Amino acid sequence: MPLRRLLALACAVAMVPSFAMAKDTIKIGFPIPLSGPTSVYGVPILKGAQMAVAEINAKGGVLGQDLEILPRDSKANADEAVRLARELIIKDGAQFLIGTLTSAEAPAVSTISKENKIVFLAPAAKTTQLTSPQNIHPYVFRVASNTAIEGQSGAIIVSKWQIKKIATIAPDYAYGRDVIAAFAAHLKQLRPDIEIVDQQWPKLGEPDLTPFITAQMSKQPDAVYCALFAGDFLTLVKQGTPLGYFKAISNRLADGGEVGAVDVTQPLGADFPYGIWADAYDPVIWPGKEPAEHKAFIERLKAFMKSDVGSGWAAQGYSSILALVAGIQKAGSTDSDKVAAAMAGLTYDTPLGKRTFDPKTHDADAGEFWGVMVKDAAYPYAIIGSPTYYNPAPMTN
Amino acid sequence: MAASFLFSQFVGGLTTAMFLFLIASGLSLVFGVMRVINFAHGSFYMLGAYLAWQMVQWLHPSGETFWPAALFAAASVALLGAIIERVLLRFLYGREELYQLLFTYALVLILGDAAKYVWGTGQLSVSRPPILGGSIMLFGATVPLYNLFVMALGLAIAVGGWRMLSGTGAGRMVRAASYDREMLDALGANVGAIYTGMFAVSSFLAGLSGALVTPIVGIVPGMDVEIIVQAFIVVVIGGLGSFWGTFWGSLIYGQVLSFGILIFPGFSLFSVFALMAVILVVRPWGLLGRPIR
User: Fold this and answer.
1) In whole angstroms, what is the distance from residue B183 CA to residue B177 CA?
2) Contact A243 B123 (CB under 8 A)
3) Rounded to 5 degrees, what are φ and ψ at A67?
4) Quick count: other Cβ atoms within 10 Å of Cβ B287?
5) How far is A165 from chain B (nearest CA, A)?
6) Which of A55, A77, B218, B289 matches a 20 to 30 Å C-alpha distance to B247?
7) pLDDT digits (tens, 9 = 90+) for B96-114
8) What pLDDT was estimated at residue B131?
């Protein structure tokens, strides 16, 4: 057969599947960092959401329709996230938005969600600015914890240490600034005798933390509260350890950026600074009384991700989908206004227990699991020794 | 401000400088000899890092597998560079610089996506080689042995490279090719081989610096773009095409960055960009460069 005919036939054949899938789906735009240093959190969040969608579609979907995720790489850049959000809504017909990772992207996408009246769920961004009285609107919801909760949890942990001087190191943008402010304020209340002797603010994604590390060490703090997360925490460990940063403070460091998640501990392996306090939304490995639903969730997650490690972040993507679906089902429709109204004050299921959106601030009452990072003979990476859920209830105001 | 602290900042700046020199020297070499601005140089650096990680995984994650892995990575990237030059780049020499720029930029995108496809988008980590895992105390500051090694290597390559360029017959050919390619061709020298060889050496340096940086920095998509910007700043400050210009440019960059965060704590990178802006206004061909004819 002449080549041209063959090509035409091949094109016709390739088109058939797209005609077959013309059935309507509920489209969920998903802009999140899929590359760069923060993708180590972004990719598993997306995978968790995809697993939720696969499970829900297998059971017949929502209101008789299948869910469809439209993933896009925001590169942790607010402008890119905004551009993608607009494109998803206007060109791709997204009816809902879930995503963004950083506290720079989320408030930016929130304005798009407000303009276009599209319900937007943030699975990871913590800055309180996202849901502050000036910025709150009916369509934005936060599945993540927030900087107030994290800062206060960190202060509670640090307040129990026998120290006099503390230093902080955090990325220089909304999340870093807000969480350190919350931490410092709460620490002052609990332990007014502790002095903050140094504060370092490297930019997010800074590849060379050495000058910040040496500057901080020169002030000789007894302990450090750290808000570096994802790739920045890896860099801190790789560059700080040979400089004696962790040794100088005897590993008295607390980090609220989910560096206790296997997504961070596994790449670091034996280089992880054991003995520091860290947290995760999902400890994955749960020594002690692990709830049965969580164990089952992790088994399914490992199979879905084709990994024997799982992820401490997938639960956030998974929970975001569950929250949205609960909202759609309560509203009985996919209309944005009805879903938004239904979600305010809604209680939804997550693999870590039930959570509720605050009716006014739309923040989930999401605490995290903190603990000392320890070695365990069964795993080649650090795990949270006794994961303790820090209940945000007394901390939100 | 304690002297030991100033010294540790200085050492940090030196380490940054030597890494940058390793990679910027290749960039400057290719421009000086071939008048090609190779954007893909950062991609070679990134590939060197990924290949080193891969080799370490295949051989054995612990133990002294780092050294063969680094050499393997550098050699593979050199081979890739030679192939790209021979098969693709050499058709663009006579053309406008714009085509070369577009081509090397296309390479950046292709190699970047290829790396993402093969190694994923997560962050990979290589441990420091055990033999250089410790540190020494120098003037009250902790200096990691690995950083000392990198500084020594950078210096050795600077001196060795200079000796080769100025002292050996091959070096003379290379310098001749940068002055006047047509004349050298007319004199019967194999300019094509010189070009391929130079590109391979430059790629080797990029791959090697990528491999050597893995114990200090996480391997992540985007590291190619990050480093090429820094390498360009270094060659702008030092002078495109000037060997010692690149060396001094790297040293200046390292120290300005290191001490910049003391003066402008919130604007760490500002100090380096400000320096580059000043150089571009006052002496656009760099400190030791020649005005481009």
Assistant:
1) 8
2) no
3) -90, 145
4) 16
5) 18
6) B218
7) 778 888 999 999 999 999 9
8) 84
DSSP of B123-159, one letter per residue? Answer: -B--PPPGGG--EEEETTEEEEHHHHHHHHHHHHHHH
Q: CA A150, CA A147: separation in Å to the nearest integer?
A: 5
**Chain centroid, CA A71 distance in Å:** 16
Question: Which residues in chain A show pLDDT less than 70?
Answer: 1, 7-23, 394-397
Which site among A238, A306, A309, A313 would you substitute to test the B interface, given the most B Cβ atoms closer than 10 Å to its Cβ? A238
Residue type, A189: Q
Q: Which domains does chain A have, with CATH numbers?
A: 11-146+299-356 (3.40.50.2300), 148-287+368-390 (3.40.50.2300)
| Residue type at position A129 | Q
Specify the 3-state DSSP secondary structure of B54.
helix
Determine the pLDDT at residue A108.
95
Q: How is residue A374 written in tokens?
A: 């320890």
* Contact state of B220 with A231 under an 8 Å Cβ cutoff: yes
CB atoms within 10 A of CB A365: 17
Rounded Cα distance between A80 and A101, Å, is 12
Contact B15 A210 (CB under 8 A): yes
Look up tokens 């410790």; give the residue.
Answer: B134
For residue A23, what pLDDT is reported?
60
Kindly report, residue by residue over A193-222, the tens digit of the pLDDT. 999 999 999 988 887 888 889 889 989 999
Sign of CA dihedral B82, B84, B85, B86: positive
Asked if B123 lies within 8 A of A234 by C-beta distance, the reply is yes
Higher pLDDT, A7 or B130: B130
Structure tokens given for B197: 């060889």
Hey, what amino acid is at A360? K
Residues 6+ apart with CB under 8 A from B293: none
Query: Cβ contacts of residue B182 below 8 Å, gap of 6+?
Result: none
In chain B, DSSP assigns E strands to 135-138, 141-144
Q: Which residues of chain B have a CB within 8 Å of the CB of A216? A: none
Rounded to an integer, what distance in angstroms lies between the CA atom of residue A106 and that of residue A174? 10
Beta-carbon contacts of residue A127 (< 8 Å; ≥ 6 apart): A103, A106, A107, A146, A147, A174, A175, A178
Q: H or E segment at A319? A: helix A314-331
Separation of alpha carbons A43 and A276, rounded Å: 25
Question: Could you say which residues from 144 to 173 on chain B have a Cβ atom under 8 Å away from some Cβ of chain A?
Answer: 144, 146-147
**Alpha-carbon distance A337 to nearest alpha carbon in chain B (angstroms):** 36
Amino acid at the residue A112: I
